User: What shape does this take?
Amino acid sequence: MTLNNSVKILVIGGGLAGLTMVSALNRLKTKKNLDITLIEPSDWHHNQTEWFKYCNGYTQKYSPTHLVNLVNSETTNWVDEPLGDLLPEKSYVLTASGKRLDYDYLIIACGLSAKWDSIKGLYGKLGRDGIASVFSYENLPWSRSLLSETIAKRTIFAHPENNKHFITTSLETAFLYAHRKQKAHNQDDYEIKFNVGSSDLFFNSYHSEVLEKHLARKRIRISYGNSLMEVRPKTKEAVFYNCNNNSETVIPFDLLHVAPSMIPPVAIKQSTLSDIDGLVDVNNSTLQTKKWHNIFALGDISNATEIKNISSVIEQTPVVFSNLTALMDGRCASAKYTGLNHCFLTLEPAKSINLKTVFSKEKKSYFFSLMTKKEEPSHYLYFYRLLIEKLRFFNLVFNGRLIYPFR
Assistant: This one.
């Protein structure tokens, strides 16, 4: 590929990862003749940090940003349709309407979707009958009201086995909810359970033990191997399947917080690019797909790391950008993704901890340390997190400046 030719770059997904790549490529467009196309069916971009803060009652307002304000129509062709089919062997994709989009390089940065229908009786009940979820934007005001105002003696947080990637969101919601309870009620007046479908909380035993210690301090009882199967809104009962003893348990509740299973888009899952879980199978160093080196994947849809959060995107976008420009220049992709991840978790208002990990796929293990060598929540980490999140949105999404602010 010579630099004098028009290079067609197709980006799938208008979340943080996709918009960062589009912004960075637009900065490069003054030097290279690029034809950039973005596929994103939604008109709105959500800042999930602000979304969760609103739902937990710590901000008074939340509004998404329209994509028109984030995508430069003069330099980027925005196709507002869902992805229909991927044909990497022919270097083009089809939208849901059958529109063909050819590419020289493809960047897959779409997110995962919530599968609410896997839980019997849940349809139409989110935000009412004592059932809430911070994962549902459509029911955000009602879930906020339930989490911040409901006087519940029996509260259950249910997190599925196959959604371990986003368990920190459920944990953070549970911690903040328990903190409000401790401040407002006698500790003997309520019970909070955290039922998780997996056999542990985090991706290594050390951090799992740290989290268990903090859960105990907040009087949150954790139960492993319990997956939510059914909700009975009329009687306010939740049915859990326990994989340890192959049994079902019916638990009454006053408030139930539900985290859904997360699935990749059908077009990705059915393509030749996916692994057994439906995620894009990539080289976890260069973030290129294993079959086609002109295709990259990052963010939630990539199987490069098991931790899906903002930190992963911030670490991955410079790697993809560097390797993509190297290929366009006729060089080898040499930038490496280390697997470094900073997982900030707010345990109470204005206090956070940081679970820092480095994931090595080849060694099948995690290496970890705690920032500032503290296991206790601190104001420093909370405000550091806020600063980084403001910087990443302004620098990455608006300006395309690929920085490493966590290092």
Notes: The first helix runs from residue 16 to 28. Confidence is low (pLDDT under 50) at residues 361-373, 403-407. Residues 114-262 form a domain with the FAD/NAD(P)-binding domain fold (CATH 3.50.50.60). The CA atoms of residues 8 and 103 lie 5 Å apart.
